[in-house]
Structures are given as structure tokens and as C-alpha cells.
Amino acid sequence: MFLINCPYCGERDQSEFSCGGEAHIERPKQPTELSDDQWAEYLFMRKNIKGIQFERWNHIHGCRKWFNIVRDTSNDKIHAVYKMGERPPVK
Amino acid sequence: MSKNLRINKNKFIDQTARISFKFNNKKLYGYKGDTLASALLANDIHLVGRSFKYHRPRGIMTCGSEEPNAIVQISNDPSFTEPNVRATEIELYEGLEAFSQNCWPSVNFDLGGINNFLSPILPAGFYYKTFMWPASFWEKYEFFIRHSAGLGKSPTKPDQDLYDHQYAHCDVLVIGGGISGILSARLSAEKGLNTILIDDKKDLGGSTLYENNDIFKIDNENSNIWLKKQIEDLKKIRNLTIKNRTSVAAFHGYNYLLARENLTDHLSIHERKNKIRQRLWKIRAKKVVIATGAIERPLIFDNNDRPGTILSSSIKKYIDYYGVKTGENISLFTNNDSAYETAISLDKSGVKVKVIIDIRENSNSVLSKQIEKMGIKILRGYTVINTGGYKRIKSFDVKKLSNDGGSVVGEKITYKCDCLGVSGGWTPMVHLFTQSGGKLKFRNSDNVFIPDENKIPSEQISVGSSNGDFELDNVVNNTVKSIKVFLGLDKTNYEQLKIECSKEKQKRNIWLLPSDKPMFKTKPFLDFQNDSTAKDVKLALREGFKSIEHVKRYTTTGMGTDQGKLSNMHALGIIADSTGTNMGELGTTTFRPPYTPLTFGAIVGRNVGEFFDHTRRTAIHNWHVENKAEFENVGQWKRPWYFLKNGENMHQAVQRESKAARESAGILDASTLGKIDIQGIDASEFLNRVYTNAWSKLAIGKCRYGLMLNEDGMVYDDGVTTRLGENHYIMTTTTGGAASVLSKLEDYLQTEWPELNVYLTSVTDQYSTMSICGPNSKKIIKKLIPALDLSDENFPHMSFKNSIIDNVNCRIMRISFTGELSYEINVQSNFALNVWEKCMEAGKEFNITPYGTETMHLLRAEKGFIITGQDTDGTLTPSDLQMDWIIGKKKYDFIGKRSLYRSDTIRDDRKQLVGLLTDDPKEVLEEGSQLIESLEKKPIEMLGHVTSSYFSPNLNKSIALAIVKNGKKLKGKRLIVPMENENINVTITDAVFYDKDNERLNA
Ligand SMILES: [Zn+2]
Fold first, then answer.
1. Of the candidates B49, B971, B458, B868, which has an alpha carbon nearest to the alpha carbon of residue A78?
2. Phi, psi (degrees; rounded to nearest 5) at B368
3. How many interchain CB pairs under 8 A, A with B?
4. H/E element holding B401?
5. Is there a smaller number of Cβ atoms within 10 Å at the N or the C end of chain B?
6. What is the mean pLDDT of residues B673-687?
7. Residues B951, B808: one domain?
């Protein structure tokens, strides 16, 4: 159970949040232009990294805002938290 | 017969407070302060249970949570009984009743003991190998296994005790109340830090508490006296909380820990009344100090498990703390100096140790010199090779060790005894450290795994013997030194302590001691609880198991309720020796929470019964109760399922309700449907993107049914959305989908389409909904709101009006889920009951009939309307549901659109929604039953399954919806529903059974 520093509310227990999977996968602006393979790439393919991973989280039992975190999945250390639309920090 | 082995003078046991208890129905006595184990030993009872596999007699081996053998069943009350309680941990209370486990018919005469003689055919992996074949014999094997294995009995009635959960936050959490924990807590609290000190015993002080030996001194005082003063001072510090009888079960990431506090287990039954039994603490600590100490290792030799074989340090605690002699003829067997301390303690209490067998060739520490001075005989360079006795150790044989320690030489000497103390050195308790993600390193000099200071996962530190310091001066000085750095202290009161202690100078370790017999004829037990021997480990290695995790599972070493606290190191040592590997490279098995078993009660706390989950009730709920509704759980909601009238059964009630709704008028409490208020200048565009159909042209005051997909093109939720104003909509969702739909829409708004100006608010609880349907519904609404023009021109199907009923503002939608002319009245929830009653009053002359979810489901099935989640399961596209009409073909994009023409979603032979009619119109299919084409062709292909099925009173026949492979093209096709006792013949039909032209909507 880690602590997450919600960019809107501050540090809260993990149980208040839900994880929305890998971050920075943008929904294609023109899905109809894509081949089945390209669309499948967007729809299904996700990384599952042991180490530094960029993730979407939602403060679902709090302010309900979505934001991104940079988490090391091998030890759950959170290296950065940033709002939607903000640039991800460089490693 | 029973002897009194209690020595009279002892300051830790209150010998004025005699307590009676029962063990295996025999009445016995102990004193306040005893554990069950110390009281049994005082009554000269060693035999406590039988072992798991061989049913060998087993006795008390330790004095703490590492106890593998002395586990008992407490009480035989069906709601209070608790299995697998360690006799060494439970404090004696008046009326305690304990029973041996793993034996039948009794611990003294156990039929399973036959397994001991069969042991040559019960090697490691026996269960895997033997019971695998032939498969048809499994039931017979299972009977045998279940009757001879198993630990204890579960309670058969609900637990009557109360359990609590509580959160705690602190600057520093200190785990362990031994000398290093005391010093750490004191340094932390005196610095002004908010500190919690947790200890699993009733008294603080660890083993130093009862250390009374002139060799160990701090500032010229015996270490126990010095520590006692420290504890007294500690208790005066205000920002320190001390939690006794509390054991840390788990150490998770980010310094989140779970600890179980025992509040009443030490009290007599009548003192426990109305008290909380256990409290589970959920602790967030900024910093954690692990001071959990070390436990003594046994030694591994032939028949090392006989009752009366006890860890040497435990013998010391029994005599020094509990005042109990563990025997009258005690000898000790050791590979280190600790046994000497035990010998001195025993000697002081008048018990002369007969002989100390020490595998080391020599030892010249202060302790060993004192032993020599006392005239206690030491056999150096010898080992115990076997023991005698059955229900109690009676003797042991020793031989000289060869120089390399690999074999024994010379003559066998036999000693008589009634208790043998063993000491194989010490194992730091690193469990919590590794649970938190810490990595260990191996110290070769004394064969211990200790925390690697470079691989500490959080703000924490290990001190004292849990960090590998075993000698008093190291324990104190290193604890103070590291706490200073850890907490950033300038200087402490403990800088210049004068510490005197004995230093162990010689070390020798042999994981598996040699015997004069061949290996296969010996029983050197490693895991006493699971009956695995060194032999089993060697067998596993011979059979090719290399990984320690595999060996563990194959031999079950370390898999008991004690998680192998005693056995793991020896198993590792033997594997390392046998394979020529360094133990550091071998690593350890993973230590998982809980450190000691937790009760289910402590885990669930107050979240039982009505507090297990939230219950949501509509504003009209009490009316339903008064009118004999049976309720159905829909998510957390309680929804009326059907209303019973005049001794009806469910079927009769549903038939009556369904007929009434079609013939005159029915009323449904639809308040549980999810309601989302949508506002913003881009609201129309937003709906365009989330629903499959077009929304921008929906006029104000109109309603529209919408289907929502997942991005994979599968139907996700549906409902009617109404345009209340230019930039204002109210969306309804399914009851179960309300929360997730809102979350999903928020997700898109915040992350994919932040440019849209749209605000979403859940108003599910704020509005209540009652739906009046049937040919007379218009008349009822007319009575309720005479001023409202209900003509089809002014108020057509799929439109909405603001109005007032009995001074209450309401939104009325003319929408229908039954196919009948229907009006849905939405009012603020606190007025809902009143408006509902007004509707009932106005509808009385039309026999308005309240109906529940069952009738609602039946009516919509007659119309072929789907229920998402019942007729769909996340694998069906709108086209699969024959709802192609709802796809906005001209729309450029909406959620899931692109997936609708992926190669897989345009396959012809997908499963599709169809109707089913049974040959026998009275036969109602079971929902979930499979559909097949023929019984002849094998293997039989499953073509689909029934999703909804009812007897329709309006059609006077059975109807069903189903999903069937390629169903769209199979209209008229005959299929079979194979059931247990019959095969039901059905025909695929259109999914709309009733009023195909929707004439009734405007009736
Ligand atoms: Zn927040």
C-alpha cells in the first residue's frame, strides 16, 4: 500500500486511487484512417515493465482527477507525479 | 503421578494467583503469568501433540512464536474454538480448555502412529508420486489423507467476538521490546518524536528481562537490573505509546504495517464480556526500527524430535522467567556458548546439568570458564547421534566427531535424561525486513543472513540481534550508534556505558550432524511441524530439484503454520553443503506476511454482517416493505423483486403483475437507475462521441435511447438521455453500471478530450424515479396533473415535460422499457414517497399494480429489449445484438467505432442475439443453459446459451432470448437444449415477441 501525492489533494493512501494503466497512449485522432493492425496497437498493446513505468492514476475516492505518475514497479517507488497534459519528466 | 516442577521463588509469576485449566479434559493448575506451555511443563507434561505426517509424539520445544510442535485447539465451543494456537504464546486464564491436535483417539494412543513405522514408504513427494495414479482411486486416497492429516478443527458456528481496526500514524515505530528496542524507543521519544513501541509479550524487556548473571553488566549493574530502570523511565515519556501483547503481522511498502493487538485472550471468559478481543492496527510510520531479536536454532541429528527435546534458551526462560524446571535430569547439546548460560541458570535454581555435549573442540570464553569452575561436565568435540524414549526422551547416545566433522568415531556413550536442551546458534528475525522489500546478505563467520545495509527499501533500520549483533556490548553500542545516525541525534545518555559480557571465541557449525547409521535409517527432523527430515531434502536434491523454492514445496519444509522459523536455515545449509554452493548465493525462500497467523476476525474487523457492504435503499423502500415486496440485490441496491399478494408464490405474483401492466396500469420504482447530469457548451458534441447514434440534432425536450460501447466495439451500457436545455442533458445508465459509466466518461473528458467544456455530476441519489406504464397510464397522469396537455402532439413518445405534482417539481419523460405507453416521473428524492403515494391513490380506480424487477425483465423480454450485463457479456457488438439501426453510420467517430469493422468483429459466425421458442409452450428454459444442434456428432459443439427466459402471461407461452453462433441467419432453425434429465427442443425466432409494430406505445 503506497502513498500517492495527488497533485490536487496531496499525499493519500493508495486505497483512495485506482490505476488506469500505461500513460501517454493517445487515442488516435482519426481512427478511421488506421489499419486493423494500427488500431490493434492502440487498443490492445501495453507495456509491462519491471522498472520505471509511466502510469495513469485516478483519485477515484477523492477529487476524481486523473493524473500521471512515474513508478518503479520493482519497488513501488514513485519518482514523479504530474498533471494530465503536462510533459513527463525525463528519466 | 504428576510432579511439581515449579521452583518457589520467582518474581515474574504470581504464585498467589492459582489458575485452573484443562488439558485433554484433565484438570490442572498453573499461575497467573504462565503460558499454557509453562503450566504444562510445571505439571511435567511434555507430550502435547502428534506430528503431521508420521504422528510421532511431540512436545514443547520453544517458548515463543516459533513453536512448531505444541499447537493446540482451544475450547470445544463451536463458535469460540480456535485451532493451531501455540501453547507457548497463549497466556493461562481461569477455565482455559485446550486439546491436542493431530491425534485420534488420543495423544497417548494414536492410531496414526502407524505412519511412523510406514515412514520408509512415506518419503518426500510421497503424496505427489503415489496418489497421482490411478486417477480413479483419488477418492479413496482423499478419504485416507483427510482422516490422517490436517491441523485442528475449524469453528462450526459464527465467531461471537468483537474485532476492531484502527489507524495510527507516528514518526517512529519500534518493533520489539527487547534491550535494543527499549533503547531505540527511548532515544526516539526523548528526541520528541511521536513514537510507538510494539512488543508481542506481556512484559517489555525481551530476554534481558530475566538475565540474571554477574557476567553481564551495564554500568556495574546486572543487565536485567539496568534494563528494568530504563523501562521504568521509558514508561514516563509522554509522546511514547507502548503496545504490549501486539505482534506485527506485515511490513508493507512505504512503511505501512499491520499489527494485531491481543486485548482479551489472557482474561478469564467472564472478564471478556463486551470487550474487543483483538485490534488490527494499520500503522503508517515515517521511520521504522526493527528490533525483533533472534531465535535459537535446533540441531539436526537422529530422532531429534522426542518430547523433552527443547531449545536451550527456552529451558533458560522456563527456569528464569516462569520458575519451571523442564526436567529433573537435564543435559545440553550445543555448538555455541548460549547453552552455558542455560547451565548456569539451571544451576542457580538447583538443577544440576549432567553433561554438556559441545561439538566444538574447545571454548575459552568467560562463560565456559565459569561452567568449568562450577564443575559441570563438558564433552568437547562430541555429538549426539541418537535419542531413546518414545513419548518422552529417556536417553541419548554420543560419539566423538571426526576432525572434519563428517563422521563419528570411537565408542558410543549413552546418557539417561528426561530433558535435552539443544542450541544450534542464532537466527536473526529478518522476516519483517524482507517483507518490506529488503535484501539479505550472508555472514559466513557465523552462518547468518542479516539485512544488507545497502538494500534497505524504506526509512527503516534493523538493530540488535535482528541485525546480527548477539553479544551484549555489540547490541547496546551498535544500537545507540545506528539510532543516532538514523534519527539525527547529536549525543545520547548512552555514550560511555561500561559493558561487561562474555565473548564467544570459538565457532563450529555442522548443519546435519553425522550418525553412526546410514542416512536412510535415521530421522533427523528439520521441519518438526511438517515432519520433513534432512533425508527428504537430500532426496529432493537427488531427484533434481535445485531451487530452494522448489525443494521447499516438494518436501513441504517450512510450509507449516510456523513458516519454518526453526527449519529454514538448516534446510538451506544442507542444500548448500550437498550441492557445494555458498549459502549466500543460494538465498532464502521468501518470507510472506503474516509473521504469525492472524485470526479471520482480526482481518475483517467490524466489516461483518450488515457492515460487510453498503446497502442502498430507494426513498420509497419502506413502502415496498409494507407492501410485502421481496427484494433483489442489484449491486448494493435493494430493489423490489416482486410483491406478494394473498398467499401467492413468486411465479403467480409475477404473472399477475405482468398482466396488470399490459392490461391496465403498473408502477415501478426505477430510482436505482444511474443518473448523470451533463452540462456545458460542448455537451451535445460530447454525447455524440460517447454514444453510437447521433445527438447533435436532438431537440430540447426530447429523449433518446443511446448505446455506449467500449473502445473494443463491445456493448458496455445503455439508457435514455434527455435534453433538458440547450447545454443541459440528463443521462440514465443501468443500475449496476452507474458508477463505472461516470468514471469512464470523466476519464475521456479529462484525458482525451480536455478541450470539451462539459461537466458531469452524479444525481442518482438526488432524484427518484417512478415509472407508470400500461394503457391507463395516461389517465392516471391526467388525474395527477390536470393542467398538462397529454396529447401525442404536445407530449409525444420520447419527450419530456417539467411539471408539478402536489406542489413538487417533477420531470416527466414519456419513455418506455415495457413497450406500453409509459410515463417516468422524476422527483427530488425527499419528496418521492409522497409522490409515489399520490400515484397509487390516483391509480387506484385503474388497479394500478406495483411491480418489481422480475416483471420488468419479463415485459422487456417480450419486447426483445436487452439488459446489458444479462443478455450481453462484453463480447457482443451492436450488430451481434441485431441493433445495427443504432449505429450512426455518418458519424466520423465515437467510442468503439473503429473496432466495429475489425476483421474479428465483422465475422459472420459471431454469436448473435436471437429469440427462442420451446416446442412445448409451457416449458421454461433455464437461463445459462447451452444450445446444441445435434447429439450425434461428437464432440458436441456448443452454439450458444440462453440469456433470458420467462413464461409470458401475455402471450401464454414460454419465451427466451439467447446468443447463438451465426444466429442472425438461423431463423427457424431447430436446436436442442440438453438438460440433466431431458433434451428440450427449441426453434430460433425473432427476438421481438410482442407488439412488433410498437402500436401500444401510442395506445
Ligand atoms: Zn485528489
1. B458
2. -70, -30
3. 53
4. strand B393-401
5. N
6. 97
7. no
B759 near A CB under 8 A: no
Q: Return the H-helix or E-strand segment holding B536.
A: helix B534-542
DSSP, collapsed to helix, strand or coil, labels residue B611 as: helix
Q: Map residue B674 onto helix, strand or coil.
A: strand
- Continuous H helices in B587-724: 600-604, 621-626, 650-663, 683-690
Which residues does chain B have within 8 Å of residue A57's beta carbon, measured at their own beta carbons?
A: none
pLDDT score of B128 more than 60:
no
Interchain proximity A31–B897, CB inside 8 Å: yes
In whole angstroms, give the CA distance from residue B964 to residue B245.
61
Question: The domain A3-25+35-83: what is its CATH number?
Answer: 3.30.2270.10
Distance CA(B214)–CA(A14), nearest Å, equals: 52
The DSSP output letter for B880 is T
3-state secondary structure of B414: strand
Q: Domain check: are B822 and B911 in the same one?
A: no
Q: In whole angstroms, what is the distance from residue B575 CA to residue B898 CA?
A: 58
Parallel, antiparallel, or unpaired for β A52-58 and A66-72?
Answer: antiparallel
The rounded Å distance from CA A62 to ligand 1 centre is 5
- In a mutational test of the A interface, the residue from B750, B755, B893, B904 whose CB has the highest number of chain A CBs within 10 Å is B750
The phi, psi pair for B143, rounded to 5°, reads: -60, -45
pTM: 0.89
Delimit the domains of chain A by residue range.
3-25+35-83
Cβ neighbours of residue B331 closer than 8 Å, sequence gap 6 or more: B353, B354, B355, B356, B357, B396, B415, B417, B419, B420, B421
Distance, in Å, from the CA atom of B963 to the CA atom of B985, rounded to the nearest integer, reads 16
Q: What residue numbers bound the domain in which B484 lies?
A: 162-294+428-500
Alpha helices for B756-795 (secondary structure H)? 777-784
DSSP-derived 3-state class of residue B408: strand
Residue among A40, A56, A60 minimizing CB distance to B743? A60
- Please tell me the distance in Å from A10's CA to the nearest CA on chain B: 16
Give the residue from chain B lying closest to A14, CA to CA: B254
What is the C-alpha separation between B577 and B600, in angstroms, rounded?
40
Residues B688, B835 within the same domain = yes
DSSP E strand boundaries for B134-185: 162-175
Look up the CATH number of the domain holding residue B221.
3.50.50.60
Cβ separation B254–A26 shorter than 8 A: no
Q: Which B positions 420-449 lie with beta carbon below 8 A of chain A? A: 437
Q: Which three cell numbers stand for residue B342?
A: 542455560
Chain A contact for B743 (CB, 8 A cutoff): yes
Distance (angstroms) between ligand 1 centre and the Cα of B719 equals: 30
At B233, give phi and psi (nearest 5°): -65, -40
H helix runs in B442-489, sequence order: 472-487
Q: pLDDT at residue B103 above 70? A: no
Distances in Å between the Cα of B563 and the Cα atoms of B439, B511, B513, B592 are 19, 19, 23, 9
Sheet hosting strand B499-500, strand order edge to edge? B221-222, B217-218, B499-500
SS (H, E, C) B813-847: EECCCCCCCEEEEEEEHHHHHHHHHHHHHHHHHHC
Interchain pair A76, B253: CB under 8 A: yes
pLDDT (average), residues B460-471? 97
Share of chain B above pLDDT 70, in %: 95
Q: What is the ipTM of this complex?
A: 0.97
Is residue B701 in some structural domain? yes
- Split at pLDDT 50, 70, 90, the class of B304 is very high
CB contact under 8 A, B903 and A36: yes
Whole-number average pLDDT of chain A: 94
Q: How many CB atoms lie within 10 A of CB B441?
A: 14
C-alpha cell at A86: 503536462
Strands, E assignment, B104-155: none
Cis peptide bond prior to B518, omega within 30° of 0 = no
